[in-house]
């Protein structure tokens, strides 16, 4: 019986970030317009595996997803044991740019979810001309916190269990059980303090409200898609953000929550395919 | 209220839920509108559920929501924003007080216990 091999290829690269070397894992599938996918806080690139297996996408797009340092199969930098991990806007922006440059991607599309959606907005503010289009999933310039992140990393509460239990409510009730629990498994596997460190960017360092009006969608189109069951980045947060961005296209996704690509791949596909087709048509590819 | 009073049986019927609650032994309180209920959990099972108020009964933490909040939360397919305990607290329809450590250390267990009345609709069919 031959092995059922998937067309996804995993590779490692060394990236210099913040003056330190990082061993970064990424996955790669398809050919065409580069589409770089950014995972949510405390998770990893596996969230995008269904896109990477979808021929309607991979026949036109080269889909890439890297695990951020400290996440998934990417390592923290040497000396990590002597520091507290904290993601910042500057470091996250540098990471995405460095990944795209290292692979010599020509005007890629970047699609990020949650913190990935937030950094997409910063890419639109600071680096729009580098990109063909930007897609923010569950993205807003700011959201009201809904729990104390101190619970995420302390010895009397299991970090993986509490991270998964907190975000479990962000998944739509209609999402298939198998996809719900695969999404939560990634949260249960996160390293200690990593989800909390990502949320430093989300809650403390990455408030984009003062700069959101600088986005020019004529330089780079911006698409924002948010699930109706996401109460962390609720549709109202995305709609409020979009009010400050002329030309941003907003879609509220029915029966989706905070992790559309992994919690309900079939439902997400209905919303993302038309966006990807539109970007492709605008590129003349 | 009648829905909520079936909670011990609903938890007992869910073998996996009891398994996940194997380390939970405590008393906590759930407020349904103005009515407090006092619950005792032993190794994941609800061994007592008493309608209050019962003065000076111990509870490690208290979860309370409006009657409207619980009604919408227990709908078999709840609406967005009413589908999770922490969605209720974020919107101000519920509050959690007391010592939150045992709640957070067993958060999925307690979320699933409190959502168990959703199963009554399918039982009624």
- Overall pLDDT score of chain B: 96
Low-confidence stretches of chain B: none
The amount of beta strand of chain A, in percent, is: 15-25%
Average pLDDT number of chain A: 97
> Going across the major beta sheet of chain B, what is the strand order?
3-2-1-4-5
Low-confidence stretches of chain A: none
Most extensive interface = A-B, 22 and 19 residues
Helix/strand order of chain B: HHEEEEHHEHHH
- The CATH class assignment of chain B is Alpha Beta
Q: In angstroms, what is the radius of gyration of chain B?
A: 13 Å
Architecture (CATH level 2) name of chain B: 2-Layer Sandwich
**Lateral strand order in the biggest sheet of chain A:** 1-2-4-3-5-6-7-8
The shape of chain B is globular
What is the CATH homologous superfamily assignment of chain B? SCP2 sterol-binding domain
Oligomer: heterodimer
Structural class of chain B: alpha+beta
Radius of gyration of chain A: 18 Å
What general outline of chain A do the C-alpha atoms trace?
globular
Number of strands of chain A: 8
Q: Cα distance, first to last residue of chain B?
A: 20 Å
Describe, in plain words, how this protein is organized in 3D:
The complex is a heterodimer of chains A (about 280) and B (about 120). Chain A has about 280 residues and is an alpha/beta fold. In chain A, about 35% of the residues lie in helices and about 20% in strands. Chain A contains ten helices and eight strands. Chain A has helices at about 50, 55-60, 90-100, 115-125, 160-170, 175-190, 195-205, 235-240, 260-265, 265-285; strands at about 10-15, 20-30, 35-40, 60-65, 110-115, 135, 220-225, 250-255. In chain A, helix 5 runs antiparallel to helix 6 (about 175-190). The longest helix of chain A is centred in the C-terminal third of the chain and has 19 residues, at about 265-285. Chain A starts with 8 loop residues before the first strand and ends with a helix. By secondary structure, chain B is α+β, with helices and mostly antiparallel strands. Chain B has a single domain (about 5-125), classed as 2-Layer Sandwich (Nonspecific Lipid-transfer Protein, Chain A), CATH 3.30.1050.10. Chain B has helices spanning about 5-15, 15-20, 65-75, 85-90, 100-105, 105-115, 120-125, and strands at about 25-30, 35-40, 45-50, 60-65, 95-100. Chain B has seven helices and five strands; from the N terminus they run H-H-E-E-E-E-H-H-E-H-H-H. The model of chain B has no long low-confidence stretch (mean pLDDT about 95). In chain B, strand 2 and strand 3 (about 45-50) form a beta hairpin. Chain B is globular and about 35 Å long. At the A-B interface, helix 5 of A face helix 4, helix 5 and helix 6 of B.
